Amino acid sequence: MKRSLLFFALLLFGASFLAAQSASLGGKVTEEGKDPVVYGSVALYQNGVLKSVVETDIDGNYNFSNLDPATYDVEFTYLGLQTKRIEGVLIRSGKAVTLNAELSPEGILIQGVEVTAYKVPLVEQDNTTQGATLTSDQIRSLPTRNINALAATTAGLATADEGDGINVRGSRNDATNYYVDGVRVQGNLIPESEIDQLQVITGGVEARYGDVTGGIISITTKGPSDKFSGGIEAETSKYLDPYENSLVGVNFSGPILRNKKGVSILGFRVASRFTYQLDDDPSAVPIYRIKDEVLANLEANPVIVKGGSPFVAADFLTNDDVNVLDVRPYEERSQYNINGKIDARLSDAIDITLSGNYNDREDQFTPGENSSAGPSWRTLNSHNNPIQYDTDYRVNFRIRHRLGGGSTGEGADRKVSAIQNASYTLQASFENETTDVSDPVHRDNYFDYGYIGKFDVDYIPVFEVDADELGNIFLNHVDYREVLRGYDPSNSPNPVLANYNNTFNLPTNETLNSEQPAYAIQNFFGNNNNRTIDDLYAINGRVTDIFTNSWNFHTNVGSIYNRSFKQDNDVTIFNANASFDLVPGGSEKGRHNIQLGIAYEGRTDRQYDVNNPRRLWTAARQNANGHIQGIDRENADTLGLYSQLYDPAGIIDPFFDAPILSLTLTNPTDARFYKAIRESLGLSLDTYVNVDGLTPDQLDLSMFSAKELNDQFILSYYGYDYLGNEFDGTFEDFFTARGDDNIRTFPVAPARPLYTSAFIQDKFTFRDIIFRLGVRVDRYDANTQVLQDPYSLYAIQGASDFHNNFGGDRPGNIGDDFRVYTDTENGESIRAYRDGDNWYQADGRPVNGPQEIEGIRSGLVFPKYQDPRAQEANYIKSEDFNPESAFKDYEVQLNVMPRLAFSFPISDQANFFAHYDVLVQRPNSNTIATALDYFYFVERTGTQTFDNSSLRPERTVDYEVGFQQALTTSSAIKISAYYKEMRDMIQLRTFFPVPIVGNYTTFDNQDFGTVKGFSFGYDLRRTRNLSLNANYTLQFADGTGSDTESQRGLTNRGNLRTLFPLTFDERHRLNVVADYRFSRESGPRVAGAYILANAGINLQAVAVSGRPYTAKQVAEELGGSGTIGAINGSRKPWNYTLNLRIEKNFTVGNNIGLNVYMRISNLLDTRNTINVYPVTGDPEDDGFLRSAFGQNQITTISNSQRELQSYLASYQWRLLNSDFYSLPRRIFVGASVDF
């Protein structure tokens, strides 16, 4: 209760002041004689646009607060003194920049403005936030366009390969947050050409940042300019490498409206880019792809008969049947991006910004491409690769109001206020992400996925021979039987799958099973020895498993991506921030920069997944006639006589007739299909329906009830009903909602987690030491129902209730809420107690686990349920089910996070800094456990890992100390040491014992990790032609789990608490960025021209020690088993990468700038090892063929009808995995024009 009151107190306090950004600029303005300039004007410009104006106080001090991180020009003006302009002042987020100015008396300079260039200090005075900042010019010069790769030049950041996920100082990659213009974003980022400033925060996180446990990558976009300008860029690798990576982009910027003074008060910037990649993840190893003519033959006859047995035809391919490619086929990716920004200056005190971003991406991919085992589509079926469509858009609105407060009064009565630079900012953002993944041909035509052809199935009556007491023989009608009469695949949308049946040589223009008459007599005539539909290799909704792949390495030809998936996520964010400067004793005696604010984020996540559309035919087949229970001879009606039957002697006897009896019909619960299909076809309920004789356009999901589809595990959804219509109801609606026909519809509520926060922070200087003190409170609410007890689907009685109801003595150490287990179902004799994860004997003695309790260790447990109806079989599926007997509201999580940092400038040449942070991040994966999951809890326990909506936020405690020292006037070093503890990290967990199912696997907050690191940085500012930035990181990242599923297969051993190196641990990483360039009139001179003027070369070098892996003992196909040594006890080899950019700038006319460049990624085409096979430690040999098991496999194949040569070739094609190596060399040429 106290924590809740604290949170809301901060919330209200923040709401009263609203909020701000933390970048600030301040300093002192003096005359040459060192007297302060009193009430002088200081103006701030960005891209020529006036952003803000302040006055100096009586001590000559000025201060801008609540600034956007960017590069500014600062102009100092005072009547009688020369105006001075300092250009290129870099303002970083979270930093207080000091900029002093000395003005000359007017007349020393003839006219105009004294202009100087800002020089970024080698040693920052404010070192309270750690990381690095890249400006737009630096980004443009680097030989990469990927934002993660740009960020990875920072010390402490690790990435396996260019563009891969970022690990910040040993944290998981999902602990890295991205911000664009101060708002956290979930989807695509903006093009790097639109970045004005990219800041990487690795430590010393300000209180205004929350919901993060790793690091922050914050992007500030470019804004409007004072004059109309634009740019065009184009880049391609076509003809230079095989991957054809190309882009083209344009941007325009300028004023829309000016005031009477000619100052822009409304401006815009818009930019767009289109990117195309023939191969979006190039391979460093050869790609094996079947030749077109061989593919055509395989598709015509995918199954062959050899020695009287059927085989997959692809099992007999050799190296002569494949092409060796440099490019992964059918891996195209295209993306269109547009960004816009409008800035309006309503007055000197109020400005607003409206910005937006739109991304549309189409990405074709290969299923199973980089999986460590199982078949891949690459070699035989990549032309059927599915396509993923992603669309993402964001809209961001901000209003900022500077209230001032610097001084009051006029003339001699003018006084400096103790509260200065007061301002507040209101910001709202909306983001939507949609994803659609499906087969590129069938898309959402779900019944096309499994359709093979039209099967004419006849339902014939079945009779049995009987005799009366006098020996008279007669026939009884006992059943009906399916007989295949015809097969027509001519209109199949999956013709290659239909060809799987070619070996049967079934005629398509004549009747099948013609020898079978229109009836059968059991054990006498027309017995079921004819060809049935189930004999075929491919029927509607099914292909025989043994023919779906070749050697279990390659997916067979004709395979269809058996999934249609869509996702729709909305994020609404509101931030209110405020800031002001408190100067109680005047600006000369210190300044407190106070910041505070609140934030709200609401998500609505929806997902609709038809995860096995082929099974729809199975569902239709099972439900079409499921209401027919056969023939009940005792109660059946006689419908007529069946004449012209053969007599027992086999001769047609016109007088030998048999009665046809009526079928027994039922009305299945929650069933719809059997009625709907007959209504569609105009058939009565007592007529059999041949589903396999229908075409896809005759079927629709709406014909089924929700339960008919869910019973087949065809669907997975939330935020939708079972038909894919958006649903905005509640968790409880799943159990109560019904359609117009009173059949339960089982809609699932969307995931709607809520996140709110409040913070307050004070940054001040005390005896030259800059302190930053802050506290943040985060509130996370999953906003859904969760299991009351993870050990049981239904709530279990507490000890107090049990003993009150059934008597008996309760041991003194057993609490009121300890759960009670009895010795029999619904018994009254206690077997054990449980408090959370702690178990107790019936007499109260604690034990180490349930395995130590007799009768419990087997997993067969009998809890005493709170609701007696829970004893019923599958009570949750009952129409009388009460959700309160199983579920409760999520327990809201409140977390208080103190933040402390200080920076001690020993001089302007040296600085000592340190920080202590407590960071908390809400669970960002595995949190959506729906009512649908629990409805099938018993059925899915053996095959499904359940998400857990009860997950709590993860927590990190971070410490760092460091020192920065200037070595010369152009170089400096920076040294720091850091330590962090990561707690409550998400990991798999198996709960045991659990009633009915024994155990199940879900996720829980149980991982722990520590990171110890040291970083060294060297910064050489441009000296003559060279600038150099280098950093080295030594790190030890250990923990109980590297990701949420790293303990898969180990959870049955209990909760592992042993620390081992994390899979992304890098002991050593060295980054070097060297930039060598000539200025306008420098370099070699030929015929009077400086041929290398404005030319430059940028070289990026990376050296990284190998990441850990777990060595295995027993070689298996594409893997291994039996751990050798410790988990992650072995290391992969070092990786080395060089990237290069060569460029030259030209000036065309007066206002047109041309930049021509070449950039090369992985200059030396180094084949760096990213992954290895665990037995050999080799990326190209798993060791299986040389093992005893492999030799047995070879012997078995040699003695079979299959070819060993084909097996070995196929094995090699699959063994080479492009994911085991870094990206190969890619060469780009490009040009950009600015005007």
Summarize this, please?
By secondary structure, the protein is mostly beta strands. It is 9% helix and 43% strand.
Given the C-alpha coordinates, what overall shape results? globular
The major sheet is characterized as: 22 strands, antiparallel, barrel
N-to-C span:
61 Å
Alpha-beta content class? mainly beta
Query: Regions with pLDDT < 50 over 5+ consecutive residues?
Result: 1-21
Provide the residue-averaged pLDDT.
Answer: 91
Helicity level, as a percent range? Answer: under 10%
Q: Let me know the number of strands.
A: 70
Instruction: List the total number of helices.
Output: 15
Q: Report Rg.
A: 37 Å
Quaternary arrangement of the chains shown?
Answer: single chain
Strand content: 35-45%
